[in-house]
Amino acid sequence: xxxTWFDHAIAKVAPRMAARRVMARQAxxxxxxxxxGAARGRRTEGWRAPGSSADTEIGVAGALLRDRMRDLVxxxxxxxxxxxxxxxxxxxxxxxxxxxxxxxxxDRRVDDLFERWTAECDADGQLDFYGLQTLICREMVExxxxxxxxxxxxxxxxxxxxxxxxxxxxxxxDATKSGALGAGRLVQGIEFDPVxxxxxxxxxxxxxxxxxxxLQNGLQxxxxxxxxxxxxxxxxxxxxxxxxxxxxxxxSLRDLDDYEVAELVxxxxxxxxxAIVFGDDEAQQxxxxxxxxxxGNRVEQFEPxxxxxxxxxxxxxxxxxSATGGYGEYKRAxxxxxxxxxxxxxxxxxxxxxxxxxxxxxxxxxxxxxQIDAVQWQLFIPMFCAPVWxxxxxAAWAAGQIPSPTVPVEWSPPKFEAVDPQKDAMANLLSIRSxxxxxxxxxxxQGRNPDAxxxxxxxxxxxxxxxxxxxxxxxxxxxxTGSAQTGDSASDPAAADEPGTDDPAADxxxxxxxxxxxxx
Length: 520
Known about the structure:
Strand order of the largest sheet: 4-5-6-7-8
Structural class: alpha+beta
Number of helices: 18
Radius of gyration: 34 Å
Largest sheet: 5 strands, antiparallel
């Protein structure tokens, strides 16, 4: 951009200032031309995009978003299904821990202790550890966040480990506690030190929405050390609290509800009068007749299927409701928007598989499962499972049940059901044979403890040998074709897969799974 006459005038007395003006104007013009989203004009008029922080935005809208989403989940079937799909895929039967200290005796002891503790871990005495996972995940998705409080118990309570977990809804956080506090600060009920570390959570004594509790205790709140709380929510920005996962489509869900109600009312209105019988005089005069029912009573309220009679009526005129299309297309488009907002495949949200085939549903599920995998390992396990395991080992150590307060752990999320189980099983087999995956990893992917599974296999084989039984599923005794192992192969399991240990027909069948797949 060339300099203006004003720039030249300034340059005569202050050339550096004139140069800075020209350069600044060029930078501004480059910015506005380079990003259409930053342009100002008629097309972007009314676009409000404040630069407020995440905490400021959540502080203003968080409670209302939470209340509206809960109302939708209670009353809107699509919102309820979206939450259920996410929870079922993230948690399923439960994310299972496995002690991994390397000391087999210690690991078995810790695993057995944890298994007994899971049945008694709920402070309400209703759910086990995996049921709590489902409840916590549901609150995280529906309300945006949830709090889990460590409750230490007395040894005399008779628990396997003197520890229980109390699940608290996000409403227990006192959002009015905000501002400076000594050298630190309070953000919507969460206390931070000067370097941003969480120190305490200010919790109400009772749920603020509980009429009895609010009346008895007012809205009192008190600080609980952050070490006693596991705060589970999705961090989309550097924020202190979470928002409901369906927040982007709250209006879309409400609009779809309103549309369906309006469509239903329109249809009911059109169907209220089936026919009206008119008299000749009234029809000619064009005056609204006095309408009565079959018993002669005056009709002042219409209902579907009504046949009304004008006095002295001789001519009958049938009502013909107008046929309007587009309802199905609008609803399908709206549900696509809602599924995108919840990050759930449309087919899982609606159960409508009419528009998909095997390849398309598999491709869609791959991306969804990658998202679920990220939520499990980057959100739920670090924010909930890891703190609970730490609390458990500390409580068990303090009670003298294990020798150390720290025990390494490995987590096994629930397995994904295969679209084609046979192909997935063959893929796992190839991975094990090629050395890219271990048998323990494959078993862990199924949501089970590899050590327990291998021990169970060994025990089963020993029992079969003691009883003299040979099953078709035993690779030590039977080939893949179902033929009995002969010679050295019966005593040497490794020889069972070598060519030449069976008849030629069996060897022909013992091809590489990948080649067999290509032949199919």
